[in-house]
Amino acid sequence: MTHEAGREETAESIGHSVGSGAESALEVARRFVERAERTASRLGTYLHRDPEVTLAMAREVDARIAKGEKLSPLAGVPVALKDNLCTHGIPTTCGSRILEGYRPPYDAHVVERLRKAGAVITGKTNCDEFAMGSSTENSAYFPTRNPWDPERVPGGSSGGSAATVAALEAAISLGSDTGGSVRQPAAFCGVFGLKPTYGAVSRYGLVAFASSLDQIGPIARTARDVALLYNAICGRDVRDMTSRAEAKPIAVEDVERGVKGMKLGIPRDLIAEGVDPEVLASLERVAKTLAEEGATILDVTLPHARYSIATYYLIAPAEASSNLARYDGVRYGFRAKGASDLQQMYAVTRGKGFGREVRRRILLGTYALSAGYYDAYYLRAMKVRTLIRKDFTDTLARADAVLLPTTPTPPFKLGEKLDDPLAMYLNDIFSIPASLAGAPALSFPAGMTRSSLPIGMQLVGRPFDEGTLLRVARTWERRNTDALRVPPIAAGARA
Amino acid sequence: MPIDAKVVHQVAALSRLELDPAEEGRFVKELQSILAYVEQLQALDVSGIEPTSQVGSGVKTPLREDRVVPCDVREEALAQAPDRDGDYFRVPRVV
Amino acid sequence: MTDYETVVGLEVHAQLKTESKIFCSCSTKFGARPNSQVCPVCLGLPGALPVLNERAVQFAVMTGLAVGGEIAERSVFARKNYFYPDLPKGYQISQYDRPLCAGGGVDVHAEAPGGGSGWSGSSSRRTRGSRFTPKVARA
């Protein structure tokens, strides 16, 4: 069986070939491990990778198949996990020094599900520290590089997860999305990234950043693969009170149903300025193609969406300041030495253990929650959140999905946005609104710039209507000649 | 509401973050810039609007049956303590 | 001196007789080895989440009814953030401005010492109308 640079290797095709006995999980795992050996250090995709453990998992899957066990469509499929997902006995650092060496004594719910499904874990991917960032430059360890141009960022915070899939070091991956952290790196790396409806996927075992916004999301190279991975992790988990039974698996055949009769709304008011011309051109191309396929394109407005960044950068840091209070050096992780008393131990541990962006957000969040400022900041932001949410509910009564770019620009260069935090935050203008609304949102590859950098488009939908988003993206995918392109760094990798 | 070095100090103390004096000035400027940006929310009329603290509220709260489920993470958890004393996590003196 | 009225406030913490803890399924049995009835949730490990014990809610409602208080159909848990080594998450999950029960009171019958002078008759004191909010016990 030949694999031209792994171009056709999707989770679906691997699942079939392993399930049918055409190849073993071990053969598949070896292939992906070898690719990672070639590119992972250069790209900085992994914080933890252990080929022996990966191959052992693959052998276990083969043993289960040999015993006649009926396995899932993901059996034998190599999957990478963002390093803020708890993996039992495997280092989970969230890209931070404060959790250096920490090995959780339990698996996250989604990890349990993937193990049961027979997926094979390739490793723990690099991310911005505690998921705070849009470039993976805030990892305390090293940055991840964009496989399409290693001088550019892969996006963040799930940069490692997106890059590793784009570079074929894994077939699929899981990231987490709080304000865009699955969708934006997916866009920058030329792959699909889904932020499920809030509550669709259990957060048990996802290290919390902002609890009312966080969702674990699939990253893959095809729309059908996104569906397969989503199906493997969605649904109610009794250990997460916010997880919902309404989140049901998507029938993969339904993804092929096309867009005839669908209404797609473009929020022209939100994309009026600051968007790269090539990104806008891509939006028009996608809209035109979907119209040719039978969809009706409408103009819609999201009047309060332009307040999203301000709203988010009060709510998320506030929640983060509380969620990160447990990193105090008492029970696990880094503890500063030589402190004279408890308070000093706390202050030095956290001062040294957390990086700059994390400390900045903790300060901002604590300020927004403190007495005298709570009403003006946090409470007000929560009210604006209601307005933003209502904009989506109103719009999605008229349209089946909202179509807009994932990011205002193509991937930027490493170091380019590090001097001004606010400039970095402004990148999230298109991804944050769906997070605040709790709505499902999908980024899909929508062509390349003239300099061969990926562009991503985004669909936002009704609660628990991920299926509609995948149908639209699949329709475009069938017409898109760039589908399954492989970045130069991963090309020429022989079977 | 203006944020200055004194406020940053107070907030850092509240959140138990020791700040390097060299970076303090930078933090103050950055926080000022961010807070100036979020000021735009003050212009909105939010009278009568309910705050959203959780999307998906309005759903019946799923409660847990009062039943003991044994859990064996004890040893693995204690083993990772920065300072373990038998059954205890030890910390520097409190007072 | 008789213009002054002594008011004493009592904040009462009562451990609820549940089998498991309020936010996780660990045992509440007294007397076990330290840190032996623990799990990721009550240890405040990264990624753990609380799940509310239905019996604790029932007990709180029963308490509210027993003292004649009002039971809220919708109440809110909030986080009280502070740092202490016995507070693994760095916050306490508590109720603040929308508690499960409010109002109500308890009659306290007190006898005058020696039955003599200086007391003007009233021998019981109701606390009705004061804010009485049984907080759900901490894990």
Number of domain units of chain A = 1
Task: Report the principal-axis shape of chain A.
Answer: globular
Taking the sheet with the most strands of chain A, its summary is:
11 strands, mixed
DSSP helical segment count of chain A: 15
Strand content of chain C: 5-15%
Annotation, overall tally of beta strands of chain C: 6
The structural domain count of chain C equals 1
SSE-based structural type of chain A: alpha/beta
Poorly predicted regions of chain C are 116-139
CATH-level-4 superfamily name of chain A? Amidase signature (AS) domain
Task: Write the H/E string of chain C, N to C.
Answer: HEEEEEE
Side by side, the strands of the main sheet of chain C go 1-4
Q: What is the architecture of chain A at the second tier of CATH?
A: Alpha-Beta Complex
- The amount of helix of chain C comes to under 10%
Biggest interface, and residues per chain? A-B, 72 and 53 residues
Give an overview of the whole structure:
The complex is a heterotrimer of chains A (495), B (95) and C (139). Chain A is an alpha/beta fold. Chain A has one domain: Alpha-Beta Complex (Amidase signature (AS) enzymes), CATH 3.90.1300. Chain A is 38% helix and 12% strand. Chain A contains 15 helices and eleven strands. Chain A has helices spanning 11-19, 25-43, 51-66, 109-117, 159-166, 183-189, 223-233, 277-292, 308-323, 342-353, 356-369, 375-398, 421-425, 432-437, 466-479, and strands at 46-48, 78-82, 120-125, 172-177, 192-195, 215-220, 263-267, 296-300, 401-405, 441-448, 454-461. Chain A has an eleven-stranded mixed sheet, sandwiched between helices. In chain A, helix 5 runs parallel beside helix 6 (183-189), helix 9 (308-323) packs across helix 11 and helix 9 (308-323) packs across helix 12 (375-398). The longest helix of chain A is centred in the C-terminal third of the chain and has 24 residues, at 375-398. The N and C termini of chain A lie close together (9 Å). With 95 residues, chain B is mainly α. Chain B has a domain at 1-43: Orthogonal Bundle (Histone, subunit A), CATH 1.10.20. Chain B has helices at residues 5-14, 21-38, 74-79, and strands spanning 84-85, 88-89. In chain B, strands 1-2 form a two-stranded antiparallel sheet. In chain B, 24% of the residues are buried. Chain C has one domain (1-139). Chain C starts with 53 loop residues before the first helix and ends in a 14-residue tail after the last strand. In chain C, the strands form three sheets. Chain C has a two-stranded antiparallel ribbon. Chain C has a two-stranded antiparallel ribbon with strand order 2-3. Chain C has a two-stranded antiparallel ribbon with strand order 5-6. Chains in contact: A-B, A-C, B-C. Chains A and B meet through helix 9, helix 10, helix 11, helix 12 and helix 13 of A and helix 1 and helix 2 of B.
